[in-house]
Write a structure and sequence with these properties.
It is a single chain. Helix 14 crosses helix 18 and helix 17 packs antiparallel against helix 18. This protein has 2 domains: 218 residues, no CATH class; 263 residues, no CATH class. The chain contains 18 helices and no strands. The chain is mainly alpha-helical.
């Protein structure tokens, strides 16, 4: 065994360990889907407030009910109760883990030893862990307090004032929460108490600490109690404007993917039917069993992914960036977006550089390797692949949510994009997710990995294997099944079209649609 091969084996073991560790850690993190569903619920509540100018027009009412449902308040209450249970469970886990760390630290401090049992680096790491956990506990408590405020308003709006009062009183049991939540709970309890008890700063607290439908609903109740008719009329007019916008946003978020999914279902039925009827002449059979002529072996594949992708991306680059004093203020979303973009470009550049060095000696490559051809039907393959991916990934995602029950972590880029309402930051997020990611990931996973695997595996198995590695590479347990499904669709599109532009288009459309939905959801405040 050569020294190079031994080093590659050791590096592969390290990369596998880091990958497994990251996946295990992601299991402790909440899914992004819960928060996303709450944002969507808030849009539904706002859209449900819309009243057409002709109040007797049954068509408008029917259209509204078709979009937001017949019982938006009841559905929203159920959604918030589920989100509260999930947040409470995550808070309990974080508290228990923090208590364990504190207990271990206490034992270490009270046991006299000539030399410390834990090296300084581990102690520092443990202190950092405690600090991060404490921050997580505080953040979860604030999230729970915010949910209680909103859940109480939903309960009060449905006439359950006693239940709402108990919900708001529960905030006093939460320690280390922001004082604004306590002040808001006092104001809300007063507004919906019987008889009402209005605090002097009630309007200011509501304006500052509540958003969207919750703010309008509370202010309407306050103005009615204060008998401020002009303010109430002005509020209602503004609420109708926001409700119309919310109805439009919800229609875009729900209708466009739905139409794409229906087209996708039709395409799936057509392609399967054509495969049975036409056999090898069908579209799905095109290049289905034709492998690539691969001049390199599995050692080259390992070298590219272990050294170029995992170790450079997960070890070397993070270490270098941690040494360089780069300011990353949490409150500045532009800096966060720029950091994400630059980091991603560096990861891509390092992986592609290792790929170039690894296959350089095999130039010129056989035909169909890394093929970009602007002629032909690549656009139809890409558009059709996107439509097919919609129903496939949605069904897998629904099953996936039941399996993970709100755990398993998520891509942090999605959370940043949801909260970012700065167009410069959104532009950088869009470039990262809708341009840089499709170009790099399709070049690496479909352009290099999938064809390389056909040296050892049938084409259909190579599609699934490359899809699974594509999903695992995102290092989030809850995303493995949906990304595996997406990766398989991308693999089928590439193997049939033999043109990298086709899967790149599918990938770009997918990420663009996700970002557009996040922007519309995040702007509904």
């Amino acid at each position: 065994m050569t020294l190079k091969r031994l080093g590659l084996i050791l590096a592969s073991i390290v990369a596998l360990f880091l990958c497994v560790q990251a996946l295990i850690e992601s299991w402790q993190e909440p899914q992004f889907q819960d928060r996303l569903e709450l944002y969507q619920t808030n849009i539904v509540l706002q859209a449900a407030s819309w009243e057409p100018s002709d109040s007797n027009n049954g068509n408008f009412k029917a259209a509204r009910e078709a979009i937001v449902g017949e019982k938006p308040l009841e559905n929203a209450t159920q959604q918030y109760e589920e989100a509260r249970k999930s947040t409470e469970a995550n808070l309990e886990k974080a508290k228990n883990k923090l208590a364990e760390l504190r207990s271990e630290s206490s034992k270490t401090l009270t046991t006299p030893k000539p030399q410390p049992e834990i090296p300084p680096a581990t102690n520092a790491s443990r202190l950092q862990q405690k600090h991060q956990l404490q921050q997580s506990v505080t953040q979860l408590q604030n999230s729970l307090a915010e949910l209680d405020l909103q859940l109480g308003i939903l309960q009060a709006r449905q006439g359950h004032k006693d239940t709402a009062s108990k919900t708001w009183k529960g905030l006093s049991e939460l320690s280390q929460i922001d004082s604004k939540f306590v002040n808001s709970a006092d104001v809300l309890s007063g507004i919906w108490s019987d008889p009402p008890r209005l605090l002097p700063n009630a309007e200011q607290v509501v304006q500052s600490n509540l958003e969207g439908w919750f703010r309008y609903t509370t202010l309407a109740q306050l103005y009615q109690l204060q008998q401020r008719q002009e303010a109430l009329v002005s509020l209602k007019a503004r609420e109708q404007e926001v409700a119309e916008q919310a109805l439009l946003k919800f229609a875009i978020i729900g209708t466009v993917p739905l139409l794409g999914a229906l087209i996708g279902i039709g395409l799936i039925i057509f392609l399967v039917w054509q495969r049975f009827v036409k056999g090898d002449a069908a579209l799905l059979a095109q290049n289905a069993n034709v492998p690539w002529l691969t001049p390199w072996n599995g050692e080259t594949i390992l070298q590219v992914f272990v050294l170029g992708f995992f170790l450079m991306g997960q070890v070397v680059l993070p270490l270098v960036l941690s040494i360089i004093p780069i300011p990353r203020p949490i409150g500045n979303v532009r800096i966060q977006a720029l950091y994400v973009l630059v980091t991603y470009l560096l990861v891509a550049a390092s992986a592609l550089f290792v790929l170039y060095l690894s296959i350089k000696r095999f130039f010129p490559l056989p035909e169909n390797w890394f093929r970009f051809n602007f002629k032909g039907n690549w656009f139809l393959w890409g558009l059709g692949g996107y439509c097919v991916a919609l129903p496939v990934v949605v069904v897998v995602s629904l099953i996936n949510q039941q399996l993970w029950q709100g755990q398993g972590g998520s891509n942090p880029l999605l959370q940043l994009a949801l909260s970012a309402q700065d167009f410069v930051a959104l532009g950088m997020f869009f470039f990262t997710a809708a341009i840089a990611a499709p170009l790099f990931e399709e070049f690496l996973f479909r352009g290099f990995l999938l064809p390389s695997l056909t040296r050892y595996l049938p084409v259909w198995v190579s599609v699934q294997a490359s899809g699974l590695l594509f999903a695992v590479a995102h290092l989030s347990l809850s995303e493995i099944l949906p990304l595996y499904a997406l990766g398989c669709v991308l693999g089928v599109v590439y193997t049939r079209s033999r043109n990298l532009l086709a899967p790149m288009l599918v990938h770009s459309l997918w990420n663009s649609g996700t970002l557009l939905s996040l922007f519309l959801l995040g702007s509904s405040k």
